[in-house]
């Protein structure tokens, strides 16, 4: 089974040289720690920066340079700043190659719910609806089940949707899956996890074809 | 040169009234018009509709206006950092319209650039699109979103000149440029107001035509919401 860092590590292996990537808050942020050797990627933050770098050294933080999580950040050589309309133009116009974000629920046809729990959490969608409506390549990073043990990979989302038919791939603590026309196709098992365990934790249609390999993380 | 300078924030806000609609720049607490917000709190005007990506925190930014119940309605994309906001929203005292962040930016820009409305894919198939016109272009579905109508746009820039030309710094730029010229009157507060001719015209982010009033801001706090740092490793 993977922890949050493990999920980030597996997703990082999907990064390709020359990719512009938008990372959501939470597990997706950790992906930046595991960029494979020998490739160049640039991180976009929708509040208006391309070429995001690591957190600043103590005492060097600048209130005018933050990411979409409102954290102080630095920039890499070649970075640029821009306004919010241009930032979402980059996203809507599909100039950003990959979007990695968290989710509360994903359905077998690729719908995603990650912004609202009616009566409980109503903080807003931020940029998530723009990102999922436009990105060509969306990977969801999440736990396979919720805290109550119920599956988050469903036939149909029960929570208000963020976007429809948009998720392409999912990495959970148990598995790596692809969203296809017929449902969740199991691509890889997390280390030490059986196909049976994944089956039991998946409510939506799970497609298992042949032997399912175990993930290779390093 | 057409001069846009006003001597202070009080002069800059002449004409504000109860029940008006305001646009306010900023992302979180980054790039917010601090002087203007302080003056709006002092003014005691009420019944405001505020278009702003966020709603500040309890004791800073738009949170200050919320504490005094001056805001009737918020149009935002994310409001998660503010307990008083949540309380007023859940009790029904505050009307809240949550919209996608890119849609918020583009509805400002449409107002700035003379478009009555725009089509965006954001929110299609979700509750955000309920009751709105949708249309298919090249096999993909889009939602019609209307340009905002606002009485004042309040923005914050790093540098500005007497002609109202603006330059922003870092990610404090965010929604500020999109809101310039998107309301009947745009008021810009700047950290450094310089004489016309000082700024290189090639470096201007927003031309002064989009700004009606500009003033030298005072005492910027520039509060950091999430101070994240790493330690310098010993060599």
Automatic annotation (TrEMBL), chain A:
RNA-binding: is it a keyword of this entry?
Answer: no
Q: Which InterPro entries match?
A: 3-oxoacid_CoA-transf_B (IPR012791), CoA_trans_fam_I (IPR004165), CoA_transf_AS (IPR004164), NagB/RpiA_transferase-like (IPR037171)
SMART domains cross-referenced by the UniProt entry: CoA_trans
Keywords annotated in UniProt: Transferase
Any one GO MF term held by the record is: CoA-transferase activity
* Cross-referenced SUPFAM superfamilies: NagB/RpiA/CoA transferase-like (SSF100950)
Keyword Transferase in record: yes
Top-level taxon in the UniProt lineage: Bacteria
Q: Which family does it belong to?
A: Belongs to the 3-oxoacid CoA-transferase subunit B family.
* Family matches, as PANTHER family: KETOACID-COENZYME A TRANSFERASE (PTHR13707), SUCCINYL-COA:3-KETOACID COENZYME A TRANSFERASE SUBUNIT B-RELATED (PTHR13707:SF57)
What is the protein's name according to its record? Answer: Succinyl-CoA:3-ketoacid-CoA transferase
Its organism's taxonomic lineage begins at: Bacteria, Pseudomonadati, Bacteroidota, Flavobacteriia, Flavobacteriales
From TrEMBL, chain B:
Q: Which UniProt keywords apply?
A: Transferase
Q: Which Pfam families match?
A: CoA_trans
Among InterPro entries, the record links this protein to: 3-oxoacid_CoA-transf_A, CoA_trans_fam_I, NagB/RpiA_transferase-like
A Gene Ontology molecular function term for this protein is: CoA-transferase activity
- Top-level taxon: Bacteria
Q: Which NCBIfam families does this one have?
A: pcaI_scoA_fam
Q: What name has this protein been given in UniProt?
A: Succinyl-CoA:3-ketoacid-CoA transferase
UniProt source species:
Aquimarina atlantica
